[in-house]
Specification:
By secondary structure, the chain is mostly helical. 72% of the residues lie in helices and 0% in strands. It is built from five helices and no strands.
Length: 227
């Protein structure tokens, strides 16, 4: 038997929960870097494009071919950052659900209800051992704002690329529309997939709620009978 199995239930809980929080914090740090780099990349390019358009129209026309290629590249890079940013949340949601359905539930079966820490999903989005300043609504608002920001920047980059094509005198060809369609498909499919994950997790949480028939005799949460 290893040392971990000899720990008191509450200490084991704190250790397991701390590991989950550290993994989420690391993922959140990488996620923040991804979001910041994507926003700065798009903002610098779009800001430079607006400035060049307002001050040096002749130069802009001469550089239209090169700028359209740069715009396309930046759009692809920001879209990739957008996908990575959202996929980080998949791992975060999975870890929070594991903490709720496994770690907290295991402690609930081992200690008195008064000794069991209250589960708060949004507490996993702050540093460990800090005061819970953010509410669930605040976390959702922050996540939504970041996703919408990237979403809008990608759309603006698309229109900027189309504008540079028009300035250069080139009409959009079939492959250009295919490129735009692929970007749009990526944007919306990532959002839909993220929503599906959230709904699936919510259904899983509901499945852990009180057993209406009281067949398990395990308090307020339903668990399948063990063989």
């Amino acid at each position: 038997m290893n040392d971990q199995s000899k720990l008191p239930p509450l200490e084991q809980f704190k250790q397991d929960d701390s590991e989950i929080r550290k993994k989420i914090t690391k993922a959140h740090r990488l996620q923040t870097i991804t979001w910041t780099v994507s926003v700065l990349l798009a903002a610098i390019l779009l800001g430079g494009l607006v400035f060049a358009h307002s001050q040096h129209l002749d130069t802009l026309t001469e550089m239209a071919d090169d700028l359209s290629l740069i715009m396309m590249t930046v759009t692809i890079l920001v879209t990739s950052g957008y996908i990575v940013f959202i996929f980080f949340y998949f791992g975060t949601v999975r870890r929070i659900y594991h903490a709720h359905s496994v770690i907290h539930q295991r402690l609930k079966d081992q200690v008195d209800p008064d000794e069991h820490p209250k589960f708060s999903w949004h507490s996993y989005f702050r540093k460990e051992d800090t005061e819970p300043r953010n509410s669930g609504f605040g976390v959702i608002l922050a996540i939504t704002t970041k996703i919408i920001t990237l979403f809008v920047l990608i759309l603006i980059s698309q229109f900027g690329w189309m504008h540079m094509k028009a300035v250069s005198g080139h009409e959009l060809q079939t492959e250009h529309y295919a490129y735009l369609g692929l970007i749009d498909l990526t944007l919306f499919s990532s959002l839909v997939l993220f929503i599906i994950v959230l709904v699936a997790v919510r259904i899983g949480v509901l499945g852990k709620q009180k057993d209406p028939h009281g067949t398990t005799g395990k308090g307020n949460y339903y668990e399948p009978d063990q063989d």
